[in-house]
Amino acid sequence: MLKLFNHYVPSNTVLQLLFDAMLLFVAVVAVFVLQEQVDVTLLIAVIPSAFAFAVTMMILNGALGLYRVNFGADFRETVMRVGMSIVLSIPVAYGIFRVLPWGEVAHEAAELNVIGLLGFVVAVRGFAVRRVGAGVLVKRIMVIGTGADAVAVEHALSNPGNPSLQVVGFYPAGSGDEVRVDPKRVVHFDGNLLNAANHLRVNEIIVAVRERRGGVIPLRELLDCKMAGIKVLDLSSFFERVRGQVRIDSLRASWLIYGEGFRQGWGRTLVKRIFDLVASSILLVLAAPVMVLAAILIAVEDGAPIFYRQERVGLGGRLFKVTKFRSMRRDAERDGKPRWASANDDRVTRIGRFIRKVRIDELPQLFNVLKGDMSLVGPRPERPFFVDQLTRDIPFYAVRHCVKPGVTGWAQVRYQYGSSVDDAINKLQYDLYYVKNHTLFLDTVVLFETVRVVLTGDGAH
């Protein structure tokens, strides 16, 4: 895993992106050199333009999920994913053609060939990722511990999204450590931890033991491993890197205080605010026809009111009124008792079900962004009734209120629709990751992921 702007990205994904970008760059240059009269003017125009075009298109398709490993995807699902990438890439590519200087020297046939090459690269990568195995840069990992936490680590690393991470064995933390992993994978080695790690050619060690007192963890031996160049991670850092979440069950207040991240400086706040103002203004202009149509359909099916305003908890625990298109019946809470919204809520109207699925009901919140109550990206704002309940039941829940709530968020693109306290706990783990690591780069990733979720219907809300 590589850490880019405080966000972890699979190293194999970066290598695939770079390889495909270079392939597309070389192919574009070759098309122009073969079809046009080669001179210095053409090369000066084409080479930097081809590079910018290749990088832009690969980043776009990467953000749309083309490079997400999914071994469970069937052929139809893969075709839909590749088709979506191609359909979205073509108009963007033609837009780039109009901006880049090669338009002055290129014939239409050359541009068509470039589009064909782009489609070929996208199709090859889309079907290749479906069959990719362990990847190029495989990291061999040894887990300290054999209990429930060790099982959780193994489960996280068995995810197809982590093909370059391989567990080579489990090292017992002590004689009293229960064995919940496969006994055949427990490391029995005569010697110390460093010798065992060298014997198994280990690159990383994950400490999957929460109890750190009484000599349970061999600290001296772990230090020897670190000094020998073997990376050592605790549970919190491991899940942050692999799952993009800060686990509640392995979290301590001292880690929040002394650890990296969770910085809320004025510079970061200013950049985020400027981004919100510019992006939400553009989105409002682009979404205006869709919003007008949605308002008409809501009025025709269930009458007024068109909008739904509700009190939510925002930055610093302050209350504000969120505005959404009304997707539920007017008598959804006629008894006055707050209820969790669920994925198949029977209170949702027919039009409401559709606009919720494609996120149209969230569009009026762009006015909340312009006003400053919300951000484009951040933890979703919750109702005061549920915030009070969740703050009592879930440790560190209030930490999510140290940034502005968002129209979309890291938890929304990584986890399904939440309708219980357990779901709130799982979403909080992603919210804490966002609060700890949020940057303009991560905001951009979330926005692209939101587009992917809406277009593919992956189920995250």
TrEMBL record:
Subcellular location field: Membrane
Molecular function terms, GO-annotated: phosphotransferase activity, for other substituted phosphate groups
Origin species: Zoogloea oleivorans
InterPro entries: Bact_transf (IPR003362), EPS_sugar_tfrase (IPR017475), Sugar_tfrase_EpsB_2 (IPR017464)
Membrane topology value: Multi-pass membrane protein
Domain Bacterial sugar transferase: 272-455
Xref: PANTHER family: COLANIC BIOSYNTHESIS UDP-GLUCOSE LIPID CARRIER TRANSFERASE (PTHR30576), UNDECAPRENYL-PHOSPHATE N-ACETYLGALACTOSAMINYL 1-PHOSPHATE TRANSFERASE-RELATED (PTHR30576:SF0)
Keyword entries, A-Z: Membrane, Transferase, Transmembrane, Transmembrane helix
Listed GO CC annotations: membrane
Protein name: TIGR03013 family PEP-CTERM/XrtA system glycosyltransferase
Residues passing through the membrane, by range: 12-34, 40-67, 79-100, 112-132, 277-300
NCBIfam families, A to Z: EPS_sugtrans, EpsB_2
Top-level taxon of the source organism: Bacteria
UniProt similarity note: Belongs to the bacterial sugar transferase family.
Keyword Manganese applies: no
